[in-house]
Design goal:
Largest sheet: 2 strands, antiparallel
Shape: extended
Structural class: mainly alpha
Helix content: over 70%
Number of strands: 2
Strand content: under 5%
Distance between the termini: 65 Å
Number of helices: 15
C-alpha cells in the first residue's frame, strides 16, 4: 500500500508535460523575436559596436596565446590592440596614396578605354554576332554615361554639403570613428567573461545544445574569417605585384579589387581577369601581353585552390558561394551596412544550425520508422544474368497489380 511503501512521486499527466514544453518553446521564440526586433530597430546605432566586436573576435585567439605564455589579460590585450592599430594605420597610410594614384591613372586613361571599346571591341562583336550596328550607338552610350556620372557627382556633392552643414552628422561620424577602437579594446579584454556570462544566462535545458552549436559556429566562422582574410591579402598582393611587373598601369588597382572580391569563389578571378585583359589590350594591343595576363591568373587560381585555401581556410567551412552572395545581399537589404558586416557570421551560424537539425531529423522517428507497406506499390527483387555469366540482383519498385500480372500461372 502507498502508506507502507513510502511516499509516491507526484503524477504529472502527459497533457500537462506537453503544455509545459509548448509554453517554454513559445517563451524562447518570443525572446528570440524581441532580440531580432531590437537588432533591426537599433541597426544604425549598432554599426560601430558590431565592427568593434568583429575586431575583438579576431584578436581574442592572439590574446589567449599571450595569456598562455604567462602574460596578464590586460597586458596581452594591450599588445594585441597596439599591433592591430599599427597594422590598420600602416595599411591606410600605404593604401590611400596608392589607390588615389591608381584612380587618377584610370580617369586619365578612360578616353583610351572608351576609344578602344568604340573602335575595336564593339565592331568585333557586331561582326561576329551579326548584330545591327544601330544597337550599339556608342555616342549615345557615352552621353548617358556622362549624364549618370554627373548626376552621381551632383548627388554626392549634395549629400556632402548636407553633412558638412550638419554639425550633428559630423559629430556622429567622428564619435563612431572614436568608439570603434575604444569598444574593441574593452570587448577584447572582457571577451572570455562575456562568453561565460552568456553561458550562465542560458536556460539549463538548452545550454548543452547552444554550447555545442556555438563551438561549431566558432570553428566555421574562425576558419572562414581569419583564413579568408589571409587568402584575400595574399591574392591581392600576388595579382597586384605580377600585373605591375608586367607593366600594366592599373595593375595594383586590379590586383586589390581581385583580392577583395575573392571571398566569393571565382568572383575575384572573373572581375580581375576581365579587367586585366581589357587593360592589356588597350595599353599594349598585342596578344603577347594577353597571354601573360592569362598565365598570371592561371597561376593565381592554382595558388588559391591548391595552396592558400587548403592551408589557411580548410575544407570545414562549407559556405557555398551562392549562400555567401545571398547572405551579403540579404544582410545589406535588411540592416544596411550593419547587415553586410554581420552577413557572414550569421550565415555560418545558420549553416551550423541546419547541419544540427539535419542530424536530429535523420535520428528522429519520422525518418527512421518504417511504416506500413504502400497499398499500391511494392518492391520486387529482380535477378539479371549478365553476358559475362554473372548474376546481379536489383530491387525495383512497381505497382502491385503489375506484379500480380507478371506472376506465372501455377
Amino acid at each position: 500500500m502507498p502508506g507502507r511503501m513510502g511516499q509516491t512521486a507526484p503524477f504529472r499527466p502527459m497533457s500537462h508535460a506537453m503544455t509545459h514544453d509548448t509554453s517554454r518553446r513559445w517563451q524562447m521564440l518570443a525572446i528570440a523575436a524581441v532580440i531580432l526586433y531590437l537588432l533591426w530597430l537599433l541597426a544604425p546605432v549598432l554599426m560601430p559596436f558590431a565592427f568593434a566586436a568583429m575586431l575583438a573576435y579576431l584578436g581574442d585567439p592572439l590574446a589567449d596565446r599571450l595569456e598562455r605564455l604567462g602574460l596578464g589579460r590586460t597586458l596581452a590585450v594591450s599588445i594585441v590592440f597596439i599591433v592591430l592599430l599599427l597594422l590598420a594605420v600602416g595599411a591606410l597610410l600605404l593604401l590611400i596614396p596608392l589607390v588615389s594614384r591608381q584612380v587618377d591613372n584610370l580617369v586619365q586613361n578612360l578616353p583610351r578605354y572608351v576609344d578602344w571599346a568604340r573602335n575595336v571591341a564593339l565592331p568585333w562583336v557586331q561582326a561576329k554576332l551579326h548584330l545591327d550596328p544601330s544597337a550599339f550607338d556608342t555616342d549615345r552610350l557615352v552621353e548617358q554615361l556622362k549624364a549618370h556620372i554627373g548626376s552621381i557627382g551632383d548627388a554626392a556633392s549634395t549629400v556632402l554639403g548636407q553633412i558638412s552643414r550638419s554639425s550633428l552628422g559630423v559629430i556622429a561620424w567622428l564619435t563612431n570613428l572614436v568608439l570603434i577602437p575604444v569598444v574593441a579594446f574593452y570587448l577584447l579584454r572582457d571577451w572570455d567573461r562575456l562568453v561565460a556570462w552568456i553561458d550562465r544566462m542560458l536556460p539549463r535545458s538548452i545550454e548543452p545544445t547552444v554550447a555545442y552549436l556555438a563551438r561549431e559556429a566558432d570553428s566555421v566562422l574562425g576558419a572562414f574569417v581569419r583564413g579568408q582574410l589571409a587568402v584575400m591579402l595574399a591574392l591581392g598582393i600576388f595579382y597586384g605585384a605580377a600585373l605591375t611587373i608586367m607593366g600594366l598601369s592599373v595593375g595594383p588597382l586590379i590586383g586589390m579589387v581581385a583580392g577583395l572580391l575573392s571571398f566569393v569563389p571565382y568572383l575575384g578571378f572573373i572581375v580581375g581577369f576581365g579587367s586585366a585583359l581589357i587593360a592589356a589590350l588597350v595599353q599594349y594591343g598585342d596578344w603577347g601581353h594577353v597571354l601573360i595576363v592569362v598565365a598570371i591568373f592561371t597561376v593565381g587560381q592554382l595558388l588559391e585552390g591548391y595552396v592558400l585555401v587548403p592551408r589557411l581556410v580548410g575544407e570545414k567551412i562549407g559556405l557555398h558561394p551562392v549562400a555567401v552572395i545571398f547572405a551579403v545581399l540579404a544582410g545589406g537589404y535588411l540592416f544596411g551596412f550593419l547587415g553586410v558586416l554581420l552577413a557572414l557570421p550569421a550565415a555560418s551560424v545558420i549553416l551550423v544550425v541546419l547541419r544540427y537539425l539535419s542530424e536530429r531529423y535523420r535520428q528522429s522517428d519520422l525518418y527512421t520508422e518504417e511504416g506500413r507497406g504502400d497499398p499500391v506499390l511494392s518492391e520486387v527483387d529482380v535477378v539479371v544474368e549478365t553476358p559475362q555469366g554473372t548474376v546481379e540482383t536489383d530491387t525495383v519498385v512497381t505497382r502491385r497489380d503489375e506484379t500480380k500480372d507478371a506472376t506465372p500461372p501455377a
